[in-house]
Design a protein that fits this description.
The structure is a single chain. By secondary structure, the protein is an alpha/beta fold. It folds into 2 domains: about 300 residues, Thiamin diphosphate (ThDP)-binding fold, Pyr/PP domains (Rossmann fold, 3-Layer(aba) Sandwich), CATH 3.40.50; about 35 residues. About 40% of the residues lie in helices and about 10% in strands. It contains 12 helices and 7 strands. It has a 5-stranded parallel beta sheet, with helices on both faces. Strands 4-5 form a two-stranded antiparallel sheet. α2 packs parallel to α8. It starts with about 45 loop residues before the first helix and ends with a helix. It holds the Pfam family E1_dh. Its EC number is 1.2.4.4. GO terms for molecular function: branched-chain 2-oxo acid dehydrogenase activity. InterPro entries: Alpha-ketoacid_DH_E1_comp, DH_E1, PdhA/BkdA, THDP-binding.
Length: about 375
C-alpha cells in the first residue's frame, strides 16, 4: 500500500480551503470528564478487570513510595513520582495487547513496570546506568523519554510503518500537559490524523508543567479540544477513575486497530508529589489544593466501588498488599547492590556498524584500561 492509497491520504484536488474537511461535532469531547466509579455505569464493569486494576494500583503506589525513598538514599539520581496518577499508568499498560507498543515519558515508569518490564530495569535510566535498562523490542516499550514530547512522533512513525506493512499493531503514547506545549506534540497529531495512523495519545493532565499551571499554557476549553483542530476525536476522562480510563482507552485502541485513526484522550488527574525529588512544590501550590485531590485518590475510589459490590474482602486486600511489599523489598535489595560497570559499554549500540573514529576511540580506551590494570599490579 502506498501513502496515496491510504484512507484519508492527500488528493490532488482537495476541497476548497473554506470548506471543512470533517464535521467537527463527532470529534468534540464531552463537557465533563467521563466517569464510571460511583455512577450507574459501574454496575457493568467487569469484576475481574476491577481486581486487576486494583492489584496494579496498590503495587504502583508502593513502587512510587519505594523509588522515592531510593532517591533519598542516593541509589537513584532522580525520580519523577506518579503518585496520584496511577490509574492512568495502569490502564495504559493493561489496555494494550502483547503486539502493541507503549511510548512512555520520563514519569511513566509505573506504566512500564505494569507492561511487564523488570522494576529495576525500569529505573536504570534514572539511576544514570547503562543505556535504557531494558530491551524495547522484547517488551514493546520504547525507552523512557526525558525530552518533552519527542516520543510522540516516534509513536506515529512506528504505527504508520506497521500499517504500511500490514501488521496489526497499535501505538499508545503518553505525555503530560506540559508536553502539549511542545512542537513535537502538534506535529505528531497532525501527521497521525493525515495518515490515519493507528495511534492513541494519552495526555495525563496533572495540573502543572513543573511549576507552570495549565492556565498559563493554553486558553483552550480542554486539552481534549485540541484534537478537533487536527481532525481526530477528543475524549475527556477522569484520570483518577481507573475503570473509566481503561474503558476510554480500550475504545480508542479498538478504533485505531479497526482503521479508524488516532484519538486524543485527556485524563484529568493530579500530581500529589513534587515534580521530582529536586523540586519544591510548596513554592507554586498550596497544601490545601493537594489535600483536596487526596480525597479523590484513585485507589480509594476503586476500593469504595469494589466494597459496594462485594468484590474486595480483607483477605484479598491483604494478599494484594503483601505482594506489593514483596515487590518493594526485592526492588530495594537489588537497587542497593552497586552496579557492575564496564567502560567499554560506551561504544555498544552507538552504530550498527562502528565507524572508523569509534573503533579508534575504543582501541584507545582499551589500551588505557589495560595499562592502568598493569600499573595496579
Amino acid at each position: 500500500m502506498t501513502v496515496m492509497e491510504q484512507r484519508g491520504a492527500y488528493r490532488p484536488t482537495p476541497p476548497p480551503a473554506w470548506q471543512p474537511r470533517t464535521d467537527p461535532a463527532p470529534l468534540l469531547p464531552d463537557a465533563e470528564p467521563y466517569r464510571v466509579l460511583g455512577t450507574e455505569a459501574a454496575a457493568q464493569a467487569d469484576p475481574e478487570l476491577l481486581r486487576r486494576l486494583y492489584a496494579q494500583l496498590v503495587r504502583g503506589r508502593r513502587y512510587n513510595v519505594q523509588a522515592t525513598a531510593l532517591t533519598k538514599q542516593g541509589r537513584l539520581a532522580v525520580y519523577p513520582s506518579s503518585t496520584g496518577q496511577e490509574a492512568c499508568e495502569v490502564a495504559a499498560a493493561l489496555v494494550l495487547q502483547e503486539r502493541d507498543w507503549l511510548f512512555p515519558s520520563y514519569r511513566d515508569t509505573l506504566a512500564v513496570v505494569a507492561r511487564g518490564v523488570d522494576p529495576v530495569e525500569a529505573l536504570t535510566l534514572l539511576r544514570g546506568d547503562w543505556h535504557t535498562g531494558y530491551d524495547p523490542h522484547e517488551h514493546r516499550v520504547a525507552p523512557l523519554c526525558t525530552p518533552l514530547a519527542t516520543q510522540l512522533p516516534h509513536a506515529v512513525g512506528l504505527a504508520h510503518a506497521a500499517r504500511l506493512k500490514g501488521d496489526d499493531v497499535v501505538a499508545l503514547a503518553l505525555v503530560g500537559d506540559g508536553g502539549t506545549s511542545e512542537g513535537d506534540f502538534h506535529e505528531a497529531l497532525n501527521f497521525a490524523a493525515v495518515w490515519q495512523a493507528p495511534v492513541v495519545f494519552l495526555v495525563q493532565n496533572n495540573g502543572f508543567a513543573i511549576s507552570v499551571p495549565l492556565a498559563k499554557q493554553t486558553a483552550a476549553p480542554s486539552l481534549a479540544h485540541k484534537a478537533v483542530g487536527y481532525g481526530m476525536p477528543g475524549r475527556l476522562v477522569d484520570g483518577n477513575d481507573a475503570a473509566a480510563v481503561h474503558e476510554v482507552l480500550a475504545d480508542a485502541v479498538r478504533r485505531a486497530r479497526e482503521g479508524g485513526g488516532p484519538t486524543l484522550v485527556e485524563a484529568v488527574t493530579y500530581r500529589i508529589d513534587a515534580h521530582t525529588n529536586a523540586d519544591d512544590a510548596t513554592r507554586y501550590r498550596a497544601d490545601a489544593e493537594v489535600e483536596t485531590w487526596r480525597e479523590h485518590d484513585p485507589i480509594e475510589l476503586l476500593e469504595r466501588e469494589m466494597n459496594a459490590r462485594g468484590l474486595l474482602d480483607e483477605d484479598t486486600r491483604r494478599t494484594v498488599r503483601e505482594a506489593a511489599e514483596e515487590m518493594a523489598a526485592d526492588l530495594r535489595a537489588r537497587m542497593n547492590q552497586d552496579a557492575v560497570l564496564d567502560p567499554m559499554d560506551l561504544f555498544s549500540h552507538v552504530y550498527a556498524e562502528p565507524t572508523p573514529q569509534l573503533r579508534e576511540q575504543q582501541a584507545l580506551l582499551r589500551a588505557e584500561l589495560e595499562a592502568e590494570q598493569e600499573g595496579a599490579h
